[in-house]
Amino acid sequence: HLEKDYWTKMKDIPQRRRRIYTHFFLGNGIGLDKYVHKRKFDKITKGFSVSEKRLKWFSGEAWKMTEIATMLKRVSGWTEDRVVYLEGPQKKKFNIRPLFVPSVPHSNENITFYLGFTFRGPVACNILVKK
């Protein structure tokens, strides 16, 4: 239902302004603490200017910050033909939209990523190939 509501709301907005905003991430906590709101990241990066924050997120440096890396849980998945998948309950295959499409490997690989949640559904952030 969220995706339908998303498209209802976004139908009149030009393509260039349609951004995917990640509101929550899967964390290492227990219970409701498993969900980390993006505002917690703002508290960690509040010492930086707005342009520095943007640069850190776009370059991927923010994911490497120890405070953020310890707060979030890395999830294992795989790619098939540049599509990211996650194994769910009962061996069900879930298609996960990548937040940054060029980060998806070209070949079929086992990967890890942070799982984010948007109004369009789950997204894969900071995709890394498993070694």
Automatic annotation (TrEMBL):
Name the domain of life this protein comes from.
Answer: Eukaryota
Q: Which GO terms describe its cellular component?
A: cytoplasm
PANTHER family (UniProt xref): DED DOMAIN-CONTAINING PROTEIN (PTHR16155), STERILE ALPHA MOTIF DOMAIN-CONTAINING PROTEIN 9-LIKE (PTHR16155:SF3)
For this entry, the protein name equals: Uncharacterized protein
Task: Show the taxonomic lineage.
Answer: Eukaryota, Metazoa, Chordata, Craniata, Vertebrata
